[in-house]
Design a protein that fits this description.
This protein is α/β, with parallel strands linked by helices. The chain folds into two domains: about 10-145 and about 290-310, 3-Layer(aba) Sandwich (Rossmann fold); about 150-285, 3-Layer(aba) Sandwich (Rossmann fold). It contains eleven helices and eight strands. The protein has helices at about 25-30, 40-50, 55-75, 90-100, 120-130, 150-165, 180-185, 195-210, 235-245, 260-280, 295-310, and strands spanning about 10-15, 80-85, 105-110, 140, 170-175, 215-220, 250-255, 280-285. Helix 6 packs across helix 8. The protein is globular, with a radius of gyration of 20 Å. It binds coproporphyrin III (HT9) and fe (ii) ion. Coproporphyrin III binds near residues 27, 40, 44, 221 and 262.
Length: about 350
């Protein structure tokens, strides 16, 4: 398999605490200079302490790494895979330095965030720039994959399984991370609202593929000042509205998350489930892709595709639904955040 010009794959993720002593320093990393109210930090810290001070995210990434290495071996790909996080050990900077020491010149980066937003797109590209500043290595962020069959497929399979087991009249609620409405407006470029449009497209695709009778999109994990508008409805409010409108059973599908992060196991499996129990709603949560073989194969396919693009060859760019396959290079004004003007990797010269 021709993977030139790449000589490594870098798995790029958020990072999370692994023990109680990590929790506060991790939260300080995440919120550095971001003005998250202290109240919210204490509350988020409690979510982690409830699970022994350990986030599931690092172990999930270790599983994904192992699955990727097996998939590469089975497909005759002899490319090293590295791992680096934004907010916790192993940090991106260490991964970049290790790659450079190992002689890697050009790495393709797979980010564990499928959609466009400052948090899921530009902030990672800022992190990649900072990690390689002064390090002789070039990084290329692989395209957003929210509408790739390897992402939509596992969600459709999981949702169909849950819907098939559920009583008639079950409503499917798709859930993602809430973000400030201003961040949504800037996602994909000024006024594009790519974040919400991408989620709506995935929700419609998965609902159709799973044979859902009715479906909607809701949000979890809101933070920040209550005076700043964030995307709504919150999942808990939404469950109450559904119940009031006569719904008796829901399947909850966390399409905003590639695996069972803290948001999924706390905000949905713990808090959302409790809300549903109090309302007397049947509540089942569908699986995230995790290390699903089709999701793992997608990472390889995105790498092979981008390598061909970099060599100037024409190639297939699989996508589902009405939105086109996402760009390789982001428009120069993609996912801007008025509070940040840091340099980034992966920008085109032209605006959206
Ligand atoms: C869009 C989006 C994703 C999905 C895309 C992606 O996957 O990247 C995501 C993922 C994640 N967010 C995570 C954790 C946190 N996010 C926070 C804060 C924030 N997230 C935001 C957005 C997103 N976040 C925003 C606009 C904020 C507030 C401002 C800011 O600070 O930027 C805070 C601070 C406290 C709080 O405000 O809740 C924490 C602790 C974890 C780790 C979970 C684990 O440990 O398993 C993961 C995967
Ligand atoms: Fe977050």
């Amino acid at each position: 398999m021709d993977l030139r010009p790449f000589d490594a794959l870098l798995l790029v993720s958020f990072g999370g605490p692994e023990k109680p002593d990590d929790v506060v320093p991790f939260l300080e990393n995440v919120t550095a200079g971001r003005g998250i109210p202290r109240e919210r930090l204490e509350e988020v810290g409690e979510h982690y302490f409830l699970f022994g001070g350990k986030s599931p995210i690092n172990d999930l990434n270790r599983e994904l790494l192992a699955a990727l290495r097996r998939d590469f071996a089975e497909n005759g790909i002899d490319l090293p895979i590295y791992w680096g996080n934004r907010n916790w050990d192993p940090y991106l900077r260490e991964a970049a330095e290790q790659m450079a020491a190992d002689g890697v010149r050009r790495a393709a980066c797979f980010v564990t965030s499928a959609y466009s937003s400052y948090s899921g797109c530009r902030q990672y590209r800022e992190d990649l720039y900072a990690a390689t500043d002064g390090v002789a290595i070039e990084l290329s962020r692989l395209r957003h994959y929210f509408n790739h069959p390897g992402f939509v497929g596992p969600f459709t399979e999981a949702t169909k399984a849950a819907v098939d087991d559920a009583p008639a009249g079950t409503h499917v609620v798709f859930v993602t991370h809430s973000i400030p409405t201003s961040m949504n407006e800037a996602s994909g470029g000024p006024g594009r609202e790519a974040y919400v449009r991408q989620h709506q497209s995935v929700a419609d695709l998965v609902a159709a593929g799973a044979g859902a009778e009715s479906h909607s999109l809701a949000y979890c994990s809101r933070s920040g000042s209550p005076r700043i508008p964030w995307l709504e409805p919150d999942i808990n409010d939404h469950l109450a509205e559904l119940k009031a409108s006569g719904v008796e059973s829901v399947v909850v599908v966390p399409i905003g998350f590639v695996s069972d992060h803290m948001e999924v196991i706390y905000d949905l499996d713990t808090e959302g489930k409790q809300t549903a129990d109090e309302l007397g709603l049947r509540y089942v949560r569908a699986d995230t892709p995790g290390a699903h073989p089709d999701f793992v194969a997608m990472v390889r396919e995105l790498l092979v595709e981008r390598a061909a693009v970099e060599r100037g060859e024409t190639t297939d760019r699989p996508s589902l639904g009405e939105l086109p396959p996402s760009h390789d290079l982001c428009p120069i004004d993609c996912c801007l955040n008025p509070r940040s003007s840091l340099p980034v990797v992966g920008s085109a010269a032209t605006p959206a």
